[in-house]
Design a protein that fits this description.
about 1000 residues, globular, 35 helices
Length: about 1000
């Protein structure tokens, strides 16, 4: 393997920012198309193709048939999709039965379709009838007849899913796929193929090496059958860079160049030697700049060793707002190195994921077009650009849309440039049967290769893309859609985006907090500067003697503050939110330096604090305003809510800004004054936030900060007679101590709002996708060095998949990077202080003697207080006795009824967060209902609750409620008063008498 690739290039961006307004982009894309394309000619070209496909329906199991019979938007289509995604990987019969019953039982496969679709309808109806008749009604119903019937239905369903898989996977091995390709060429001699090895991206080094071996094996097999000639006309392979390196990420650029590039070079060199073509598949938008860096580095190497090779290429996704910029940058790279690239233009494969990521990160827009026809415009603009770069680019147009195909043919003929069309195996065959009647049009098939059980993610993605109601493939199967409507010109941009911008995610009354994307190179530089400039200043400790005068001042100040109009208090919170939003970089730098947070965690925390301010402002105006109540005539009744007095807010170090801010502003907007006692490890963040709140308009005698030890300052504030309420986040032991102290005081009964920790579990059954499970486990257990109250502590995995999940988890842990959180490539930074470090080391030492080590992250840094993520296997759930606040994971295998697992988790006494990983919808709901847990997360990670979206808080040993960031939180900070006035006391009931006169 070559080891002399240059170091990563500078971080200077190659492309514009990804989140730009669609209208502005389209105004640049449309004019060249409008002057070149004759759309009526497009329609006249494509209409006969559409009619021919409808006159000669697609084969029985083809995509068009499936979508006609069972649209993805229907219960039946969704059931088929979910079964296809999960059933083949389920190893145990019990769970396979439960999954089949769950999915088929939700649908009604009773279509009366005729012709070639009748068989599918009949088979489906029979399967659902059998499942309803024979499947066990409960896990304990194990009658022999019922069991045999259930297994029969499952076996039939598995076979049906395998038949479905055959339509989308060319072969289970590269040699089988090549034989199938040769048979296809007997009917259509001009077909070319690009083989793709099925599977998800690598999670471990073992995964990456397995994919590398599969790619090399494919190249050898193709090369053995390859005749000499132009690689653009030959078969080839498509590779995913994320399959060859588990950390193919922008923030791991140095590792990408050191570890990934030599692997890719093995493939590139073998393809070049055999004169084949090799295409790098497209990935998500946050990897686009990195992909271009990799392309550039490989191109430089190719230019020096195989300058005549014309088979190297990549895919470009037209749904990305930077697609045209990418096309032009690829052409620039080719010209700079004197090479000729093959470029596959696709519409895109990750649209929903891109949208969700932009919303979750609070980006200023979307990196993809939000209207499908805008993607079509972008596609045609990219097609035109690729054809204009014909001296350095061989364009490959992948589409199933007849209108797009006809438009591309028109553009290509005007440009007089070579090109080829592409389709997916199992899709679009009817259209291309008609297109290929023109012998001058070359067509390549993108052909997945692999076992049917590996097709799940690929298949579901393809079904969602092509099965959406707006897709051409879906509408092609609908005879009610007129060809003119189906082929309507996309060159008419919509005036408004197809989705609300991320800032408008929560509606017109509350703006989403402004986020940032660390993979954006321009933004990253500004964050790095802010981190370098951050200097947390020492904060003077308050003394016990400071408590009484501070509380007296706050008590006096509360009288004026609570009389401040509710709208004015709410507006102060909104003003504070806007100010904090604008100071994102400053506060992120402070969080990284004082609280040892990684940049991603710091950004999320600042955003959470902003969200708390805006959400509680909105909630206060909606829920705390006075309201009139019904009653008898002659009197009025009014309910009003008021601040209780001085609230003591005691916050933790693990979220020194978000939790601190959430407690303080909730108490303030309800009309209380606040004595804020931050964690002694992180006072600088708290002091900066208090200063911001004062700047926003909170009176100084309504909010004061006292920095000191919990044993002295915290205890003194709780014991003070003027304390009207306590809001606490921290350990269960300290919460109990506060509760006892409040109960022992004379005077009013003082409310305690406590959010404490938990032994948080994740339960995984055998239907779950292991890659998704491991992603969720690594994020939930080890992000923030495991120092979140919501962090995963106990992983419960079904015994039939435990070995697979544990092995993958071990490998994923080995790929994490430990070190200075100020370095953006760091995944896990140090724990908060020496005491935490020593406690964790003691617990880990005990586990090494009492449990079985699964794996731990290598520790190469000498930075103090680093605790390497580590996982141990235990025999029983009950063996986990207490919460361990750090990157330590306990794993237990389970079998039998999943309800028993939930009962054992409940018996631990904590109730903060729970993760469920299952594809059985009914099971997820049943287990969530049985769990005495505050926050339950299904098929995702268990951390990062969003204000107003996932109100956060537990029960049992995990807190008192109400949930922070939820609609009931503010009430606990209030006293309720009712005013009743006898309006008839003076002179009778005038209103009633007036009504009688009328």
């Amino acid at each position: 393997m070559p080891s002399d690739f240059p170091p990563p290039p500078s971080l200077h961006p190659r492309l514009p920012a990804p989140c730009r307004r669609e209208a502005e982009l389209l105004s640049g894309l449309l004019p060249p198309l409008a002057t070149t394309l004759d759309w009526p000619r497009v329609v006249s070209t494509a209409r006969p193709w559409v009619q021919a496909v409808r006159d000669k329906p697609a084969p029985f199991w083809a995509m068009e048939s499936l979508l006609r019979e069972y649209p993805i938007s229907s219960a039946e289509g969704l059931a088929l999709m979910r079964l296809a995604e999960a059933l083949l990987r389920v190893p145990d019969t019990e769970t396979a039965i439960a999954l089949t019953a769950d999915q088929l039982g939700r649908a009604a496969f009773d279509s009366q379709a005729e012709g070639p679709h009748k068989m599918l309808a009949t088979l489906s109806a029979s399967a659902i009838s059998l499942s309803k008749k024979f499947l066990p009604d409960s896990p304990g119903d194990n009658g022999l007849l019922k069991r045999l019937g259930a297994q029969t239905v499952v076996a039939a369903t598995v076979r049906a899913i395998q038949l479905l898989g055959r339509q989308f996977v060319l072969g289970r091995s590269i040699r089988e796929a090549m034989n199938e390709a040769n048979q296809a060429r007997e009917h259509q001699p001009g077909l070319r193929f690009s083989y793709d090895m099925l599977g998800e991206g690598a999670r471990t080094e073992a995964d990456a090496q397995r994919y590398l071996a599969a790619y090399l094996n494919a190249l050898e097999a193709i090369a053995a059958k390859r005749a000499t000639g132009d690689p653009t006309t030959a078969d080839g392979i498509s590779i995913k860079l994320s399959a060859l390196f588990s950390r193919y990420e922008e923030l791991q650029r140095e590792r990408v160049f050191a570890e990934l590039l030599p692997r890719v070079w093995q493939l590139v060199e073998r393809a070049a030697q055999a004169n084949l073509n090799l295409t790098i598949d497209a990935e998500e938008s946050e990897r686009l700049e990195l992909s271009l860096d990799v392309l550039d580095a490989l191109a430089a190497r190719i230019a020096s060793t195989h300058p005549q090779w014309r088979g190297f290429g990549l895919a470009v996704q037209a749904y990305q707002t930077r697609a045209l910029d990418t096309v032009n940058e690829v052409a620039r790279i080719a010209r700079r190195h004197g090479l000729y690239f093959m470029v596959r233009l696709v519409k895109g494969a990750y649209w929903d994921g891109e949208v969700k990521r932009a919303q979750e990160l609070g980006l200023p827009g979307y990196p993809v077009f939000t209207h499908k026809h805008h993607t079509d415009i972008s596609y045609l603009a990219c097609a035109q650009a690729l054809l204009s770069h014909a001296d350095v680019v061989y364009p490959q147009f992948a589409t199933h849309n007849a209108g797009t195909i006809a438009a591309v043919l028109q553009l290509a003929r005007k440009a007089n440039a070579p090109f080829e069309m592409q389709r997916l195996h199992g899709m679009g065959e009817g259209i291309y049967r008609e297109v290929m009647k023109d012998p001058l049009i070359a067509v390549r098939v993108y052909a997945p290769v692999g076992e049917h059980r590996d097709l799940l993610a690929y298949l579901v993605r393809r079904l969602l893309e092509n099965g959406a109601n707006s897709s051409f493939v879906h509408q092609l199967a609908d005879d009610e859609v007129h060809p003119e409507e189906l082929l309507a010109s996309p060159l008419v941009p919509s005036a408004h985006p197809g989705l609300p911008w991320p800032i408008d995610l929560y509606g017109p009354r509350r703006a989403n907090s402004t986020g940032a994307d660390p993979t954006n190179r321009v933004e990253r530089a500004s964050f790095e500067a802010a981190i370098a400039a951050a200097r947390p200043q020492p904060i003077a400790l308050a003394s016990v003697a400071d408590i009484a005068p501070t509380m007296a001042r706050l008590q006096q100040g509360q009288h004026a503050w609570t009389r401040t109009p509710l709208s004015a208090r709410a507006n102060i919170l909104r003003r504070a939110a806007d100010m904090l939003d604008a100071r994102l970089h400053e506060f992120c730098g402070l969080l990284v330096r004082e609280a040892h947070k990684t940049l991603g965690d710091a950004i999320a925390e600042v955003r959470e604090a902003v969200d708390f301010c805006r959400y509680y402002a909105e909630q206060a105006e909606e829920r705390l305003a006075s309201q009139s109540l019904p009653g008898p005539t002659g009197e009025s009744n009014e309910l009003s809510l008021h601040g209780r007095g001085v609230f003591v807010c005691i916050s933790p170090w693990n979220f020194p800004l978000a939790i601190f801010t959430g407690q303080v502003v909730a108490a303030l907007v309800a009309g209380n004054s606040v004595a804020a006692k931050p964690a002694e490890q992180t006072p600088a963040v708290a002091l900066r936030m208090v200063a911001l709140l004062h700047e926003a308009g909170v009176p100084r005698d309504a909010l004061a900060l006292l920095h000191g030890l919990g044993e002295t300052i915290g205890a003194g504030l709780v014991a003070d007679d003027r304390t009207a309420g306590v809001c606490f986040t921290g350990s269960t032991a300290v919460a109990k101590a506060i509760n006892r102290a409040l109960a022992a005081k004379d005077g009013p009964i003082v409310p305690l709002i406590a959010e404490t920790g938990g032994i948080n579990a994740m339960v995984v059954d055998s239907t779950a996708l292991p890659e998704q499970v491991v992603d969720a486990v690594v994020q939930s257990a080890f992000r923030s060095a495991g120092q979140r109250c919501s962090a995963l502590r106990l992983l419960c995995v079904h015994e039939s998949v435990a070995d697979t999940v544990i092995e993958m988890l071990r490998g994923a842990m080995a790929e994490l990077t430990l070190g200075d959180p100020g370095r953006l490539e760091t995944d896990v930074g140090p724990v908060i202080d020496d005491e935490a470090f020593e406690n964790l080391q003691g617990h880990i030492a005990r586990l090494r003697t009492e449990a079985t080590l699964i794996g731990e992250t290598p520790l190469h840094s000498t930075l103090p207080r680093l605790v390497a993520p580590i996982a141990f296997e235990l025999q029983h759930i009950a063996d986990v006795k207490k919460e361990i606040f750090g990157p330590v994971l306990h794993v237990v295998r389970w079998s039998g009824a999943p309800e028993t697992v939930i009962a054992e988790v409940n018996a631990l006494g904590y109730g903060l967060t729970l993760g469920l990983q299952t594809r059985i919808d009914g099971r997820a709901h049943q287990l969530a209902e049985a769990a005495r847990i505050g926050n339950v997360y299904v098929n995702r990670n268990m951390i990062g609750a969003v204000v107003g979206v996932q109100p956060f808080g537990g029960e049992g040993l995990s807190g008192t409620g109400p949930k922070a960031g939820g609609p009931h939180y503010l009430y606990r900070f209030c006293a309720e008063r009712t005013l009743t006035i006898n309006t008839a006391a003076a002179g009778g009931n005038a209103a009633l008498l007036a009504g009688l006169r009328n």
